[in-house]
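Backbones bend. To wit:
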Amino acid sequence: FKATHFFTMDFASPTRALISLQKRKPAVSENAVEAAKKLLEKDTSAEDYLDAIATLMHDETERWETLSVSLLLATKILVDAAVNQTSSAVYIDGPRVPMENASSTETKTECTFSSEQLSKVATWLHQASLKYLEHNEPRVRTFVAKAVGAHATWSIGIDNPQHEEERQAVHNQIVKSIQDHIEEGRDSPEKHSKSSTGALDDTTGWRALETNWQCLACWIASLGDKYYETVGLQLDQLLENAEHSSTVHLNRHVRAASIAVLEQLTISAGSNEKYWHLLETGSLRKTIVKVLKAGLGDNWSQVRMAASVLNRVFWKTIKETCQFSNDNLKQLYPVLIPRMCLNRFYLAQGVKLYSHQTWKLVFPESGIEVVAQSIAPIVRYYVQMCDADNHVVREAACQAVAELAGKIGMDEVHYTALQPHVPILLQALIMCFHDESWPVRDEACLACGTFCRAYPEECRPELETLWTRWTEQLTDQIWSVRADAAVALGDACQAYGEEFFHRLMKFIDENLPAAQNQPAMTLEDYKALQNDMAAHTDSQLYSCGSLAPKLKKNSNKSGAGRIGCSNCTINRDKQPWEATDGCLYLIRELVDECSYDNSTLPALSDDILLPLLRQVADVCRVSHFPQGDDLRATLWRQLPTMMEAIGKQRCKRLYLEVFMDLLMRNIESRTASAISKHAAVSCAQALSTLVGPNIFRGRVYDDYQREALDRALRERQMQQERSPREQGTQFSPFEPPGLLDNLDSHQFSKLTPGLPADMMNHPGVGAGASF
């Protein structure tokens, strides 16, 4: 058996496309390879260059690769020769974030072409556009769309009746094809879907409809405001078809492509005052608002991204270019503002960061005032999204609701604007507490804590329900849920004062020793349980990208059923040690929150705190089950925060001795897990910095432990020197630049997860990229 290697075609530039064409397996024809070599030669004449392109375009093997390369090269010739270079870029690149300040590094073609030769190339592209508009390969159809735009961009700058007729013919063909496709789709959408080559569902392009919209977008971008002077243009019919394709059509690629057309129509209308009425009160504005209402809430991130691009272009055009009155702009607030706000928390990072940037551009100073003015429609939309079928939308909705409490509720000027809506928002969050998706429950938990802190009296009627949910979350199977439940309980403690504090202390007293009741289990037994073949064989597979049974709604659980990201009927029983782990997070939160100057409770006294932390140290010595290392890792992660809140002097005098023995035993242990040892060394380094290296080292009385500490700190220092991660320069290959910045900043919170510093420091935003 001999494997066949398929070299990927690279269309990043003409040069790279030609090189990859020669390496393609199975190989293209010899004539195509020779033509590609000729095109790469620097001294190729203009005539030979065009002959080589013609060879690729009319290659008898009809391989899509050769056709795509020929369209790319011919398109570039016209683009380089175009007189009118002011057309805007068309966003047809799928789910990627559009380049805001794109600059091409590809040089122009070295050959100099005569007007007759350019006219020949334009005719080639015109013929290819008509012939390959419904090609089976989507990449070919994308190049056809760009070819249409290049033809229009070049020909609009010259006086040539033939090319003017070609432009008009292409436009008529595109518009007619769009109408035919939509009519056929409305009559029999199921048949229409199955007629697509290789398409068995609604997730791929439907014949030429997507390409037609892309072609039209490129065509409009080339003509600019002159498009509205096109002979035979029926704008109302076009807008009706665009609205249908953007909001009703089942295929996400079609929806995104039709949104790109509306974007170009907006830019074109804004460039000429003669057509501003279309954006002020006309049919174009009405269509755009309807499309944005659907597109900014689309279930596919690709469509949501395309709608976000249109949304930014629309606002910049009417606000900066046309400079419509504030009264005119405010008419858009009830529909667009809620969706713009929510998308800043959407799970897809491209949509999230792009939406944050859009908000900054549209409302650089007055964001919180705009939200306060639109609070009623925002609340209605958020409540609706808390009950959405898509679990990532519900998660984003909970974050957005928490932001309202954190920004509006904590603002002295606008505090009363949200006050009447607190009960309905709280009910929506309580509903999400029952969600089958744990990230939704997690965000609902945090949001409820934020609301209690901002509006304690309005939330008091639901306090018992919230207490039950918070304490359930504090003993959850997932560590991050436990940690965030502690944050919520800390907020509630600040809201309800001493009575709630004593209730928390009673809960801690009852649940902190729970780890001592954990059933004994050896590490070997634990590994055998994790690697049990019977438990992992013949089971249903689940994927975030599939339409597997994960999408069912489970009505057996309490609360409303929800679409989750896994099989929510499978659930592991809670373990006793997890209750102890949750108490560690809660103790950290109480110590930390009560240490601030604006705390409603006094700092914990030594009479309360010292016995409590001694009990913590005793409980965390458990070693009769493997998860004891996880419990100690949690302790070492929380201890530096607690000691900083307690203060250097109290730490040295009373509390350092409580944990030194357990900490050093963990560092020197040969059987402890790598996670707990790493957490222990990090804790030792933080405490050493707090109290002073010499003082900390002096508290270690055993020589062997002192050597183990010195060795561990040296290794950690060497690791940090080898891989520095300075603030603002962190990078993840899987996320947009800047996503990992500011994770250690005091400004970082659940309301501003991993946003770049320039967004967090935006004027009028405060501590977080909010309104």
Summary: DSSP finds 35 helices and no strands in the chain. The chain has a mean pLDDT of 83.
